Amino acid sequence: MRTNIIIVYGILISLLVSCKTQNLLVDKNEVVDMKPFFFDNTYQYKIEKDDKISISVWGEDSYSVGSVYGIYNSNEVYGKWLLVDANGNIEIPRIGTTNVLGKTIPELKEILKNNLKEWLLYPVVDVKVLNKEITILGEVRNPNTILVDKDHNTLLEIVSKAGGFEFYANLKSIKVLRQNGENVYVANIDLTNAVDILNQNIQLHPGDIIIVPSKKNKEFDKRISTIIPFTTTVSAAAIIMGLF
């Protein structure tokens, strides 16, 4: 019996020493600037290089690209979109080369309406960015890149679209990465803080990346279950205590 206990202890110690998680951006001493993540009700997405844009003009297919008014809606599968090139330009039917870099959707709509008035009396125009997306990685059921139509999305909304958190999700140390030009900002979110949940459930922008790390005992649980099947850290400890 004593020999069995020594063997089990030896195995557990080796497991604890070798347990390493694959969590990203984990730093206990990090200093996080949350200002870039404060809620902004005036925020609007601005068109960037490599964006895919569809243009819809009601009743005028010859002016449209991937029209939402047509038989086939704007869809990347059909290739019905305009790519914003390295100079921030797109080629619009009839209108020609147009710089759209840094424009909001309402601003681009107005530009198109004013240009189309040369041929149409009352142009009805819609513009859509097809690749507005938020990426979520780590301990969620369906890690994925999620397409979003609206500008204002919250952290919990995107988590729900990814199927919710997995059992081992570390809700105290969720990371959100946001790039603004050459600067990359990182937010550290603690969703266990019920008092501050409104500030922790931050507003996300298209292009943000969410990383949900795992709890430290995940690898240990996985390793111990290969020796004592169907156990967790707690149940394994109970089994060990029962050996005395």
Automatic annotation (TrEMBL):
Principal location: membrane
Membrane disposition: Multi-pass membrane protein
Organism: Flavobacterium bernardetii
Protein name: Polysaccharide export protein
Annotated transmembrane regions: 224-243
Entries under Pfam families matching the protein: Poly_export, SLBB_2
Family: Belongs to the BexD/CtrA/VexA family.
Annotated keywords: Cell outer membrane, Ion transport, Lipoprotein, Membrane, Palmitate, Polysaccharide transport, Porin, Signal, Sugar transport, Transmembrane, Transmembrane beta strand, Transmembrane helix, Transport
Localization of this protein: Cell outer membrane
Lineage of origin: Bacteria, Pseudomonadati, Bacteroidota, Flavobacteriia, Flavobacteriales
Superkingdom per UniProt: Bacteria
Record domain Polysaccharide export protein N-terminal: where: 41-129
Coiled coil: none
Domain called SLBB: residue spans: 132-212
